[in-house]
Specification:
By secondary structure, the chain is of the alpha/beta class. 36% of the residues lie in helices and 21% in strands. β13, α14 and β14 form a beta-alpha-beta unit. α18 runs parallel beside α19. Pfam families: PP_kinase, PP_kinase_C, PP_kinase_C_1, PP_kinase_N.
């Protein structure tokens, strides 16, 4: 295993744009220095000639968006090696990596799959993804050995006692076999995305078995504390229960992933159920086969699914390592992170409106209580002076305190309306259910505009006064414990008026026009103007985002760098331009970095903005986000302190440079803390 001191990893060629790859292969000879002497008249003539602008000091290296995201997932995989993380938490990152790779092939690969399939850059993506998958398989085997020390064992069927085998035989017959599909090979083109399959036959491929998704992939062994056995291994042991004629034949594991096809633009909620029914009808983008899969069968499946050989990975079983999350859930508390001490804002929950009449409140989750957001909504329900509530809801989960408060408020006769975003990828079904619950309680569900609404805003009107919550994260209690996000509560008139105007525009199906805050492409305009204003030797810019891929913003940053500005970037996942000499930081640690912040030092004073938007063309051109200024001096200082702590972090950092990634672990400065 590699040392945990600072290490450097070169960017593979797949991450570079074409011009950068060409430039990397050509070494220019160094020019010899010469001293030139001129007669006085010649020197005067040269001084009179117009001077050429200085050559750019910061030359860009471009990465594709897909390549940059894969490198982020490699950083996630690296967390399994963290010496300062408990064993189960390192194992959790293996499950996160596996889920991320599925998302890559179901969503993030779609542009490259449509436009670059078969090209050298696309093949390099496949090579990087397969390299990660092979490394993950080796890490899984290392974890199996380490788990023994915790009294946790993932057993093979051969390690079970006779009685245990008899029990699982009965379990398979009673609980699994009735839910298992037996499929003819002719149906290969219709196989489902991300399900686990087995192939079998005598000579030719004859049978396909689809394991039920409702049965856990990992089962506890009764009476053997800490003992588990994989469902797939048990099915292999008793293939006679799943094949016709009670045949006992070898089974070979495989799975596939389809592109998630869901229309980006729909008229309204009425069309969502039909769209969901056909979501997984997208083209197959990826196939995984166990390494001993019969070659003839492998070729049969590949051709039937329309895949090219590099899109097929042959890996040691078990496939889809996300099931290790079960081990994490059952393991001892001593091998998990210790709970953090969550701070609660004094006096806010009891009287949020009185508090906000005096000053703004800015919270940094999860270190400061996300429950304060839910309490704000709950107090609005109970307060008889509250007349109206509005909310944007995106990924809110199955159980949600804020959504329930909105339902209670509507039942109490208050005017309640929500923009429930039905196009939140992979959360559409849950949001469809919420839309029915809202409608049944009298909550007005606003029509979906042409642009997706990704803004995070909660508006309350009380006795003629207005109060709002603005956030960088979703109104989701689970995310509130796991994501680092900012919450701003304010009664500042310019902000509350903009939030009211935002909801009024959505209700009337109009484009929002705001005076102080920014939405849609006006966020780009704000950032370009702010970057250009600091494009000088005394200028300073800090951008903290999950993704930064917008070409105009990247170009503006480059121009600011070449004019002498100091630019600090904290980019968690995707960044498509890097510059030699510019330290770009990616924080990957215990919590998912999720806050989006921009800070500009204008004439010695900082201007700070935060919001829901990442700096990608889709967020700025095809979504209604909200970007808001931090006006309160105390709140502004707090955000700047958080940014400075993250810039100084040497515990959770990867430094991204054109030449590669450099880990900064093991230090004393933890930027994923408050204070």
């Amino acid at each position: 295993m590699a040392s945990f001191s600072e290490t450097e990893t070169a960017f593979p060629s797949f991450a570079l744009g074409r011009h950068d790859r060409l430039r990397a292969r050509v070494k220019k000879p160094k020019a010899k220095k010469k001293t030139l002497y001129f007669p006085d008249k010649a020197a005067q003539h040269l001084e009179a000639m117009p001077k050429k602008p200085p050559a750019p000091r910061f030359v860009p290296t471009h990465l594709t968006q897909e390549a940059s995201w894969l490198l982020f997932n490699r950083r996630v995989l690296e967390q399994t090696r963290r010496p300062d993380f408990p064993l189960l938490e390192r194992l959790r990152f293996l499950a996160i990596w596996a889920s991320n790779l599925d998302e890559f092939f179901s969503a993030r690969i779609s542009r490259a799959f449509a436009e670059e399939r078969g090209s050298p850059s696309y093949l390099a993506l496949m090579n990087e993804a397969q390299d990660q998958a092979e490394e993950a398989g080796k890490l899984y085997l290392e974890f199996l050995k380490a788990l023994v020390g915790l009294g946790l064992h993932i057993l093979e069927p051969s390690q079970l006692t006779k009685a245990e085998k008899q029990y699982f035989g009965a379990y398979l017959a009673e609980e699994v076999a009735p839910l298992t599909d037996l499929i003819r090979p002719e149906a290969l083109p219709e196989l489902a995305s991300q399900a686990l399959y087995f192939a079998s036959g005598e000579g030719l491929l004859q049978h396909l078995i689809r394991l039920p998704e409702s049965v856990p992939r990992l089962l506890e062994v009764p009476g053997r504390e800490g003992g588990f056995v994989r469902l797939g291994a048990l099915v292999r042991m008793r293939s006679d229960l799943f094949l016709p004629g009670n045949q006992k034949l070898p089974l070979y594991e495989f799975r596939l992933i389809r592109l998630a096809q869901l229309a980006r633009s729909r008229a309204d909620w009425d069309e969502l159920p039909e769209a969901l029914e056909t979501r997984l009808d997208g083209q197959v983008s990826h196939l995984e086969l166990e390494e001993d899969f019969p070659p003839l069968w492998a070729e049969t499946i590949r051709v039937a699914l329309g895949l090219e050989p590099p899109e097929v990975f042959q890996l040691p079983p078990p496939l889809d390592l996300s099931f290790v999350a079960t081990i994490v859930a059952h393991g001892p508390e001593a091998e998990r992170f210790k709970p953090i001490v969550i701070q609660k804002p004094k006096g806010f929950a009891k009287d949020p409106f009185g508090y906000l009449n005096r000053r703004d409140l800015l919270l940094y989750h999860p270190f400061e209580d996300y429950a304060a957001v839910e309490a704000f909504a709950q107090m609005a329900v109970r307060d008889p002076k509250v007349e109206a509530l509005r909310a944007t809801l995106y990924r809110i989960g199955d159980e949600n305190g804020i959504a329930q408060s909105l339902i209670e408020a509507a039942k109490a006769g208050k005017d309640v309306a929500v923009l429930l975003e039905g196009r939140a990828r992979f959360d559409e079904l849950a949001n469809l259910e919420w839309s029915l619950r809202f409608a049944g309680a009298g909550v007005r569900v606003l029509p979906l505009p042409s642009k997706k609404v990704h803004a995070k805003a909660l508006y309350v009107r009380r006795a003629g006064s207005e109060y709002v919550h603005l956030g960088t994260g979703n109104y989701n209690p689970v995310n509130g414990r796991l994501y680092t996000d900012l919450s701003l509560f304010t009664a500042h008139p310019v902000l509350t008026a903009d939030v009211r105007a935002f909801f009024e525009a959505l209700e009337h199906q109009q484009a929002p026009v705001l005076s102080t805050m920014r939405t849609a492409s006006f966020i780009r305009d704000l950032l370009l103007e702010s970057i250009q204003a600091e494009a000088h030797k005394k200028g300073e810019i800090i951008l903290k985002f999950n993704h930064l891929t917008d070409p105009p913003i990247l170009q503006a940053l480059e121009e600011a760098l070449n004019r002498g500005a100091r630019v600090h970037l904290i980019i968690r996942s995707t960044l498509t331009t890097l510059w030699e000499g510019v330290e770009v930081k990616s924080l990957v640690g215990r919590f998912l970095e999720h806050a989006r912040v921009a800070a500009f030092k204008n004439k010695g004073k900082w201007r700070v903005w935060a919001g829901s938007a990442d700096l990608m063309p889709r967020n700025l051109d095809r979504r209604y986000e909200l970007f808001f200024p931090i006006l309160d001096a105390r709140a502004k200082r707090k955000v700047l302190e958080i940014l400075q702590a993250q810039l100084a972090d040497d515990r959770n950092s990867f430094i991204l440079l054109p030449k590669g990634m450099e880990r900064r672990w093991g230090g004393k400065r933890d930027g994923q803390r408050l204070g």
